[in-house]
Predict the 3D structure of the following.
Amino acid sequence: MLNAALRKLFLALSHNAFLRRRLPGLPFMRRAVGRFMPGETADDALAAALVLQRDRIASEYTRLGENVTVMEEADAVAEHYLELYGRIRESGLDGEISVKLTQLGLDIDEAATLAHCQRLAACAAETGSHLWIDMEDRSYVDRTLAIYERVLADHPGTGVCLQAYLHRTAADVERLLPEKATIRLVKGAYDEPATVALRAKREVDANFLALAVTVARATPTGVRLGLGTHDTRLVEQVAEHAAAAGIRRDAFEVQMLYGIRSGEQRRLVAAGYRVRTLIAYGDAWYPWYMRRLAERPANVLFALRALLP
């Protein structure tokens, strides 16, 4: 009950325009968010990735920001990521990039957003990397998948995020598997109504497991799976089901956020899993940070500790 109340509270805070303007400038908030991101620049993200790679942990990058309102800003985001692909290769990193389509202009010009994605996916292929298309709330799912499928047709290996709490996701998985999709499965971080999403944690966990096993069993056909969860119990359950089908645990990838369960990330690597850490950076971190607090009660404890002297 308390967890559900905290989730609802922080998701509501993520949409509060007044707090979004005021809180990021306060010192205590900057200390708290430092738990989950190494800094606000790409330099900070790349430096953190070099440290992770020494522990055999790969990296993924996202510059925070969403729902841009002018196309020039979206164009600048695309140029930033094109440059970042080059920097990833120059640094010798096993690094990939994850983008939100509303940051590339989806609310403004769908055709231009598709063009940006095509350029980024082409650059990813040229530099030996990959592009992930992140998922946003339910109002964007159809448009996101439509763009993803068009990019995937030209650039195999491009990935998309699917959310296990949505009722529709099982059908989306079945639709994408024949296309040899690359899928990152997450539980879901938006406040969706019961008409479109599972609300109880046990139901979300059960659906995550079922969907992950379905995708894992398709990996021998060329499908790629990323498990976007910090729930290592679920990860190990997926591995058990995959093993029963003759699929090794390194056939899929565990994807966790920077600063969360770092010890578990290293333990999973030692146990034979492939692990990739998503490193967020940028100054537009307030709504992203509120959603991270909503995801796990333990994150709230970390945040409260950061407020102490």
User: Anything to note?
Assistant: Residues 71-90 form the longest helix (20 residues). Strands lie at 58-63, 95-99, 131-133, 159-163, 182-186, 224-228, 253-257, 274-281.
